[in-house]
């Protein structure tokens, strides 16, 4: 009886923690289908760096590949001035498929990453809770397999970003780069 009660309490606590998190994860997430090249079409965030830099941001490419131990290597290439920069990140899998963690070696921030929804061959909506000593922030990314995405997908990104508490001025559809620096097909 006592073991049953503890089990029920454990499940209730787990359910409460998941409900408290409030960020969904793609049902039946299939990590292998998420790999490959993506364009970052949309970015939303309430972080200070985003507010300071959003007028400079442009579309970038992101290549996601699986590591031998089941994590994800994420390499983003983005235009910066007259050249391109690359940022490598290692997303560590968690017990929940579609949810990853990452700690920035540069800033020491901890990232709780959710693949919210995707159909794998067109778009992916990814939400990240970022925690650091100075506070926390939310970031939502909209990935696309092509440089264009339907108005319905763009609206879904905007709607989801608002659901995460982000204001209209914190939501950005990224402009294409004029010369397509580093973004060749």
Automatic annotation (TrEMBL):
GO terms for cellular component: extracellular space; Golgi apparatus; nuclear membrane; perinuclear region of cytoplasm; rough endoplasmic reticulum. The keyword Glycoprotein applies. Residues 1-19 form the signal peptide. It is an enzyme of class 5 (isomerase). The keyword Secreted applies. Residues 35-177 form the Lipocalin/cytosolic fatty-acid binding domain. Keywords: Cytoplasm, Disulfide bond, Endoplasmic reticulum, Fatty acid biosynthesis, Fatty acid metabolism, Glycoprotein, Golgi apparatus, Isomerase, Lipid biosynthesis, Lipid metabolism, Mast cell degranulation, Membrane, Nucleus, Prostaglandin biosynthesis, Prostaglandin metabolism, Secreted, Signal, Transport. It is found in: Cytoplasm, Perinuclear region; Golgi apparatus; Nucleus membrane; Rough endoplasmic reticulum. Pfam families: Lipocalin. Its EC number is 5.3.99.2. InterPro entries: Calycin, Lipocalin, Lipocalin_CS, Lipocln_cytosolic_FA-bd_dom. One of its GO terms (biological process) is mast cell degranulation. GO terms for molecular function: prostaglandin-D synthase activity; small molecule binding. It catalyses: prostaglandin H2 = prostaglandin D2. Belongs to the calycin superfamily. Lipocalin family. Monomer. This is Prostaglandin-H2 D-isomerase. It comes from Tricholaema leucomelas. The lineage of its organism: Eukaryota, Metazoa, Chordata, Craniata, Vertebrata. The gene is Lipo.
């Amino acid at each position: 009886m006592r073991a049953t009660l503890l089990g029920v309490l454990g499940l209730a606590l787990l359910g409460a923690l998941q409900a408290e998190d409030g960020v969904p994860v793609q049902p039946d997430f299939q990590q292998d289908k998420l790999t490959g090249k993506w364009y970052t079409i949309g970015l939303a965030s309430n972080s200070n760096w985003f507010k300071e830099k959003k007028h400079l941001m442009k579309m970038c490419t992101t290549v996601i590949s699986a590591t031998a131990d089941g994590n994800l290597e994420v390499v983003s290439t983005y235009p910066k001035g007259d050249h391109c920069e690359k940022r490598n990140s290692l997303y560590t899998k968690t017990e929940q498929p579609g949810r990853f963690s990452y700690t920035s070696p540069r800033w020491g921030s901890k990232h709780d990453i959710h693949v919210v929804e995707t159909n794998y061959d067109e778009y992916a909506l990814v939400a990240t809770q970022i925690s650091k000593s100075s506070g926390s922030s939310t970031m939502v990314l909209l990935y696309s397999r092509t440089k264009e995405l339907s108005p319905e997908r763009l609206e879904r990104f905007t709607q989801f970003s608002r659901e995460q508490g982000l204001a209209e001025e914190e939501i950005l559809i990224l402009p294409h780069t004029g010369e397509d620096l580093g973004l060749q097909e």
